[in-house]
Amino acid sequence: MVGVILRLRAIQLTSRIMRTVNFNNEDYSKIKSGHLSRGILFEDERFPNTLSNLESLVGNSLSSPEFKRPRDICETAVLKVDGPPGAICLGSLSNINAVLAMSLIAERTKLLENDDLTTDPGENSALKDEENPATDQDEDSFDEMCAPRRLGTIDNVSGFCSNYAYMLTKTCVVPRNPTAMGVVLSAFKITQDAPKDRLLRLRSVLTIQSKATSFGVWKGAYSEGSQEWEDLSVRDRSRIGLVVSTESEFWIPLSAMVKYFTGAIIARLPKTGIFGPWSLAGYNGIWRAENSGGSLEFRSSFLQNPQYMFEMTKETPEEVLISLNRKYTWDLERQAIIEETSPPAIGFALLEVESNREVRAHLLSMCTVVGLHAAKRHRAVFGRYRLARGRYVLVPFLQEPQQEADYYLRIFLPRNLPNKELIYDQPQRGVFAIFTGTPVIITRIKLLHGANLASLKSRGFGSTSSSSPYCRVSCEGSCFTGRVVRENNNPVWNESFIFYRAKPNKQPIKIEVFDKRAIGADEFLGEGIINAPESTGSGDFDINLYTKPKDENRVRLKGTVSVSLYTVDMENYMNL
After folding, report:
1. 397 falls in which pLDDT band (50, 70, 90)?
2. Which of 103-107, 301-305, 455-459 is predicted least confidently?
């Protein structure tokens, strides 16, 4: 999937060295002082204060407008009572350009406090927001706010506005022979004749047409009502795919696009599938009151949010892409999207957890935050991270607790790696629990670092290379291997494991240390036994290494492993 956004040539208002360029070489200070000295109001020559321009905002005939200052309409004039300043609804306007201009000016409240600013609330102060017709809410005039300058100049020939962004939704080739046989021959390039036209279908959410005029709509070849459409029958158009899906789409020749546009922004989704370099893990989810814990500012409730686990298996860091999209709110009765004046801000946090965790994380202090995308009021947020071997939990969140929304989460992994949504707070009782027993305590062990873990065997004359140690942790039939630290006799691991233990008295935790070899079997460097206490508690310990027991005789080896233990009973499982 490829999304392309095109921007018009006239938008280039800054140079390569970020030097500000005045619009049409106009100086605001000189214009203002000149109008003040002459005692006249400013009027934009490109958008004069004429009745036809005002009618283009509403879409029907108007009587002569009545100009008033904000204080003449109400005592406290504001553009928007509720919600953020930019969330202005369309209301009775049929052209969204005015609404966009008002949303821009709403963020500059000083313009409403200035008595020298004249406003045009429409016909007899009737230009109101139908969604919230408050008495102290008005909308200023289109030309007095000079909003067309922000939207860009309107080209009378092409119909484009220079500051518009258009999305490329489809391409089409019009063959010289639009019949069925001509289309087939053109597709297989049997004929050497060049196609009649190459067309692009563009879409703009700001393209609104009214009875009076339209902004942002192409007026040239293949525009609505042009001669080119009369030369093609409806069947021919459907055959070659020359159709539009919404009113905001239109077709434009490639030659015209090259003439009026200066460049394109290409947004590419990573290629997934069997032969693609990425593997996609997609999840549909919802935030509701019971699982909406807010952002990291609310540490006590943050981990109530949905959690998604994935595991990185390579020793070298690999890249992971994360995309979180907030879904539109859909009205089932009207079969339409519900406009949100104040949508919730979304974000996500990436936590490193125990390397064998299979259930939800409950305590933030036991996790390591390795990535964070702060909550923003965007439709989609994106992150790119390089992660080492380990297990990670991705937590999407809203800005405030108890907020509600729907979302779609995409995790692009370098290959088909283990991933799933974490639903349960503790391991579920399996069918063999009658034989294995029910857990009574939970032990979290963190491998901190090792000391003097040199190889026990000689590597040849003059060899000074260090070992590459790693640990293997086992308990009650479960065995997990930690990460390797290359060429270091005093490695730092900082890797955690969690065990739900049913027989802590009979089966202790065993740590085995090995030296990773490039060729042949890994060398055994020693093992240590941890008789974790039955009671709850925590502490740091230095574990001495011994040889494997033979006839109950164990030989002390050089080297130690430092660990941190934290034990709770099953009643307090939410503390781990």
Report:
1. very high
2. 103-107
Residues ≥6 apart with Cβ < 8 Å to 63: 123, 124
Closest to 467 (Cα-Cα) out of 533, 408, 526, 422: 526
CA distance 328 to 460: 67
Distance CA 415, CA 329 (A): 33
Q: Tokens 């053109």, residue?
A: 186
Task: Answer for the pair 244, 251: CB distance below 8 angstroms, yes or no.
Answer: yes
**Which residue type, as a one-letter code, is found at position 385?**
Y
Judge contact between 95 and 215, C-beta under 8 A.
Answer: yes
Q: Identity (one letter) of the amino acid at 488?
A: N
Which residue segments constitute the domains of the chain, with CATH numbers given?
2-151 (no CATH), 169-212+228-266 (no CATH), 279-422 (2.60.120.380), 433-575 (2.60.40.150)
At 266 the three-state DSSP class reads: strand
pLDDT of 495 strictly over 80: yes
The mean pLDDT value for 403-417 works out to: 94
- Can you tell me the mean pLDDT for 270-278? 85
Q: In this predicted structure, what is the pLDDT of residue 10?
A: 35
Within 13 Å of residue 318, how many CA atoms lie on the same side as its CB?
A: 17
* Nearest in space to 546 (alpha carbons), one of 561, 533, 528: 528
* Amino acid code (one letter) for 103: S
Is the whole-model pTM more than 0.85?
no
Write phi, then psi, for 399 (nearest 5 degrees): -65, -45
The predicted structure's pLDDT at residue 185: 55
Q: How much is the average pLDDT of 529-555?
A: 78
> For 543, what's the count of Cα atoms within 13 Å in the CB-facing half-sphere?
30
Residue 521 CA to residue 504 CA, distance in Å, equals 32
Q: Is the pLDDT of residue 480 over 70?
A: yes
Considering only CA atoms, which of 389, 359, 418 is closest in space to residue 576? 359
pLDDT higher for 16 or 469? 469
